[in-house]
Amino acid sequence: AVRPGELVDVEEVASGWATRERLAAVPEEPAPWDRDAADLLARETGLGRATAALLLAGLPGLDSWTRDFLGPGVRDLLGITTAEAAAAREELRELSLPQRRDLLDAAVPDDLRDPTALARGLAAAWIERFGRRVPVPEDALAAVTTLQPDIPATRLLGLLVAPAETPELTADGTHTIATTSYGHLYLRAGTPFGEVATDLAAAIAWAYAFLPGGHPLHARIPQALELARQRLDHDALLLELGAQHLGTRADVVKLFGDRPYADNPELVDDGLTVVSVEEWASLFFRPARLGQDTRSAALRSLGSGIVRAVDLLCSPGYAAIAERLAVLPDGSWDADPRAGTPDLVAEAGKVLGVDEDPATLYLQLLTLLEPTDRNVRAWNGWTPARHRKAGAVLLERGLVVEAKRERAGRKLFLPGSWTKAKAPNLPLESSKAELYDLSASRFLPDRPLPELFALAWEGTR
User: Fold this and answer.
1) Count H helices, E strands: the chain?
2) What is the pLDDT of residue 174?
3) Count of other CB atoms within 10 angstroms of residue 281
4) Which of 17, 203, 253, 450 has its CA 20 to 30 A from that of 223?
5) How many CA atoms lie within 13 Å of 277's alpha carbon, on the beta-carbon side?
């Protein structure tokens, strides 16, 4: 018998680059930083520049949970912002520790002080192991993190930039529900679409509302939406809701019936939803069968984000957003009502007795989620003086009130009650709850903004 602590086998492990001789030859002084080398790595791999810089620097602070994990000195040296660094960290965290070591080990050149050689080595090693990424717009990488996506920002934006090249949007699969050795239920095999559905739904609305017409992210959104709908129409696709407290067995049966699931008789299956019969039930559903029937109502009553995402992706509102993106002129914003609803601006001006600028600003304050001073000036192409002039007219007519409110980003508000919100959302007029789903983690439009302007204006009549 082998005694505790007894050595029974020895295996030689390859040392890789770090031989004794090479380690002895490592210079004591830091190697020079070369931004051109980081740019080279980004171009070769398709990685964002911040991700490439973090990789070239040796993955510093990757497991830190501090937001500014690099500190201002290192960030300035690398030439990236705090938000860009955080987004890059989230992407590179997907690599396991062995993958990180293997990648760096394979890339280190003979001359440690040659950043270009290191960048080329990293590019070759990355592509060999993970393939070339689809390049995404740098200006959107940090901005999209306000959605707090579950997947890395580069992966999410890749779904919008090149949807036809992503397995999540191009491959169908058949899921089965399996059980771990600990008795937990999970989805086995199938397609990774379920990993991205919720984030994709949010990203489509965000890109429409917060990026100008003609932005590179806009061009392929109609295709991304069409591919997502094709995946959702696949009858064998199962999506996971997670565990929810449903109460007793009788409560579960009341919601979902008692027909056993074909692959596991301990679960019940009403044709749409598959549920474990226990107090904390695991739930899965077939999005292709989600409709307007009683069983769909039972599923929606649970308030799941993934079910809401499926509804959005299949909705007429999202189809209309895709159509609007195709005709939105370069550099324009639908958040400016003059772009999509000029007749409504004219009508509002006539009814309110004001010129075009005050009418435009009134509709924005009435309708939009984040009509901050900065946003309004960007959307409308206004100078601060022109903005103040329009606001002064509304104040004089008693159509708005002036106040200081925390995190509002503006001084003018519609009269009435005020709803607070957790970041990244901004607080807003309570009346806007009729236009948006304020139960979502990120407040976003579910239809084109011209339609929302019309609905909001109709509500004042």
Assistant:
1) 22, 11
2) 72
3) 25
4) 450
5) 20
